[in-house]
Fold this sequence. Notes:
The complex is a heterodimer. Chain A is α+β, with helices and mostly antiparallel strands. Chain A has a domain at about 95-200: Alpha-Beta Plaits, CATH 3.30.70. In chain A, about 25% of the residues lie in helices and about 15% in strands. In chain A, the strands form two sheets. Chain A has a three-stranded mixed beta sheet. A three-stranded antiparallel beta sheet of chain A has the order 2-3-5. In chain A, strand 2 and strand 3 form a beta hairpin. The relative contact order of chain A is 0.18. Chain B is mainly α. Chain B has one domain (about 75-355). Chain B is about 70% helix and about 0% strand. Chain B has twelve helices and two strands; from the N terminus they run αααββααααααααα. In chain B, strands 1-2 form a two-stranded antiparallel ribbon. The radius of gyration of chain B is 21 Å and the shape is globular. The model of chain B has no long low-confidence stretch (mean pLDDT about 85). The interface between A and B is medium-sized, with 17 and 13 residues. Bound molecules: iron/sulfur cluster (2 copies). One iron/sulfur cluster (SF4) binds near residues 121 and 151 of chain A.
Amino acid sequence: MSTTTGLGQSPYSVQVGVPAAVLKAKKVRRRLDLTLWEKLYVAEIVRGLVITSKHFFINMLGFIFPPAGKKRKVFTVYYPEEKLTLPSAYRGRPVLVAHADGSEKCVACGLCEKMCPAHAISIVAAEKAPGERYPARYTLDLGRCVYCGYCEEVCPKEAIVMSDEYQGLAQGDRNLLRFQKEQLLRPEGKVKTRLYFVRRIYSKWNY
Amino acid sequence: MLADLIESLAKIVFIFTVNVGVFAPILGWVERKQSAVMQDRIGANRADILGFTAIGLFHSLADAVKLLTKEDFVPANANKFFHTLAPFIALVPAISAFAIIPFGGRYELFGREINLVIADLDVGILYVFALAGLATYGTVLAGWSSRSNWSLLGGLRASAQMLSYEVAMGLSIIGIIIVYGSLRLTDIGAAQENFFRWGIFLQPVGFIIYMTCAIAENKRIPFDIPEAESELVAGYFTEYSGMKFVMFWMAEFLEMVTISAIVTTLFFGAWHIPFVTDAMLLSWFSGFAGPNGAAALAMAVNIAVFFAKVSFFIWLQMTIRWTLPRFRYDQVMRMCWKMLLPLSLINLSITGLVVLLL
Ligand code: SF4
Ligand code: SF4
């Protein structure tokens, strides 16, 4: 479905916010009463009009002669035709991660089921071989899920992660929102950046 | 007699088509699109016919279809008669104010003198003010008859605001009347043939006061406290739907056109191009088109120039609407009574003094 997350993200180098050296204090005018010139309104209104009409004319120019090759100034995304590349911190639909052979990583430990604040997960565990558990049924009710990400945080096997999928989450029928294991399995490559991200933010595996 | 009738009918049909058929629907689109362009957005662009979106123009069409097919809802306990009457009272003055606005000069065509104005009234501009006064009733009645708190508050605010601003608006125009010595808009238009006698040079303060009051009369931002979406839902027309809603909406846009037309006529040289007189136009065109053709061409140029100026002022009003925040109610009142009214009185007395001394 969604194929927008780039895989080229480097996993560890991240910079949050503006470096302190670059920050500059902004001068704020504390005096709240207007000067006489401002009270006359006219000049100030003209100043405002100049700003807005500058935007108007620049954008009109852009609409009439779209700059070739350059990124457009308007931030609006034409949604169904264009999609955003979502950051790996985005919590979309929780999905199950599959091994290379297509079987699920989940060992049906039941931690996510217990942790889920919305009781969205229900697992029926079974054994493949003696001592090797797997979920015979893994049901995720996306009508209940609140996208908190606790399941992902608690999972000891990196078997459930929040993906960047956000489409198909509105349905006319609640039953369609009850996702089964087969619908939730994704190959590991698809959720790789999220896996890196999870390791970093929760630091639970000491990689 | 018959020719007179045909001439008037032709002019009425022309103005009606331009206003109701072109300006009203297009302005709905312009308002959306211009606000989008000013705010670095894209604006309406989804409605399409067979894949053609025509830069969002079909949204007006879709709006029309939607609003015409919508249920016409009258709230329980509302006064049905006045509830129905109010949109008409709001819309009719907005359309009929255009009757006295000259959109071109006076020309000789096939031996008939054609004056490009529907009704050349000698009370001229007073007629516009009378109609603007009537339009207040539409708003107040709408607010009162809806039986809704929001509407009533909107109607109350509208009555206070519109009555106050009418005073300052009337006084701001008297300066122009003194300068040109006539109430007749065709005279005022003809007097501005000379570029340096345009109203904006003779009455700059009058222009600012008139523009402010006119926007306030039209209840548009920054003076939209009667509708104030964030406070009163939609103010005086909260309880309107379907066709009656369209009538209020159209009245607002047509009033905008009328304001622009009056500003053009009074302050910006009416149908004149700077430094070009009607006689010059006639002499240029008669070289290749003969006297009748020249008159027709000159008329076309006049009309085009007039509506170009009108379009500019519509753009200006839209820009003001999407630039300024709404005034608070007490600020609106203070601005009218403590600033605009004294200012227009001062402007009036100075103008009178200067005209008397010259
Ligand atoms: S994201 Fe939260 S609510 Fe959704 S399944 Fe996981 S734990 Fe439950
Ligand atoms: S916590 Fe992980 S391993 Fe345990 S049941 Fe949930 S998905 Fe499976």
